[in-house]
Amino acid sequence: MKNLSKKIKNNRQHIKTNKIYPVKEGIKLLKNLQLAKFNESIDAAFHININTKKSEQNIRGSILLPYGTGKKSKIAVFATGKNAEIAKMLNVDAVGTEELADIIKKNKTKFDVVIASPDTMNIVSKLGPILGPRGIMPNPKFGTVTENIEKSIQEAKIGKINYRNDKNGIIHSSFGKINFSTTQLYQNLKILFNAIKKSKPNQLKGIYCKKISLSSTMGPGIIIDHLSL
User: Fold this and answer.
1) In this predicted model, what pLDDT tens digit does every residue of 205-219 receive, in sequence order?
2) pLDDT the model gives residue 192
3) Domain 17-68+161-228 is of which CATH architecture?
4) CATH topology assigned to domain 75-158
5) What is the DSSP string of the chain?
6) Distance (Å, rounded) from C-alpha 109 to C-alpha 54?
7) Residues 6+ apart with CB under 8 A from 99
């Protein structure tokens, strides 16, 4: 077994393994642990009671976090004409059509957000096998296939995130940085959780969210009492 560092051992001493923490107490605990030398992200894992083999039960959506994520996203925009000019004026990381598709195919740059105008989807649709697994395939439901390129870019810059479950029925999402206040992190988490609850499939019965765990990038995970959100 790999030896644990003193930092990890020290952090684990502050965590009660079987305890379910009130939300704000859990957030404060993560903030007070011995930190890495960089500004860590705070992540949530929502364990959802769905059958991922049934397409109608899979969860996906987008939400604008009130305090953003604290992360500067790399944004690529597929657009032509006026929409392309708007994207360039807003200083996104890349704008184009076929040449931008080639950059993505060759994996020269990894983008966090990809936005497309409808007239470019014949090009973008071919990138599904690359962008789909990363969760960044443009989608009208997420507002990333749109004629309103300006709005979509602005939302991406200030903290709009997409969420979806993995094959195990877990939704992983960052909702802020360790240097955010407890209140900011709590409000971001609450907005995100409410959006996930609203995405509950109509035919699903019984318990929807089984568990929520929080962690920082380098810190241990804790379980929180999601009923208090």
Assistant:
1) 889 999 999 999 988
2) 97
3) 2-Layer Sandwich (3.30)
4) Rossmann fold (3.40.50)
5) -PPPPHHHHHHHHT--TT-EE-HHHHHHHHHHSPP-SS--EEEEEEEE---TTSGGG--EEEEE-TT--S----EEEE--HHHHHHHHHTT-SEEESHHHHHHHHTTSS--SEEEE-GGGHHHHGGGHHHHHHHT----GGGT-B-S-HHHHHHHHHHTEEEEEB-TTSEEEEEEEETTS-HHHHHHHHHHHHHHHHHT--TT--S-SEEEEEEEESSSPPEEE-GGG-
6) 34
7) none
> What is the b/e burial string over 70-93, where b = at least 16 CB atoms within 10 angstroms of the residue's CB?
beebebbbbbeeebbebbeebebe
Asked whether residue 185 carries a pLDDT value surpassing 80, the answer given is yes
| pLDDT of res. 10 | 59
Domain spans of the chain, in order of start? 17-68+161-228, 75-158
Question: How confident is residue 4, by pLDDT bands cut at 50, 70 and 90?
Answer: very low
The predicted pLDDT at position 219 comes to 85
CA distance 71 to 157: 9
The single-letter code of the amino acid at 146 is T
Residue 42 contacts residue 213 (beta carbons within 8 Å): no
Express each pLDDT in 53-96 by its tens digit: 999 999 989 999 999 999 889 999 999 999 999 999 999 999 99
Res 13: pLDDT: 61
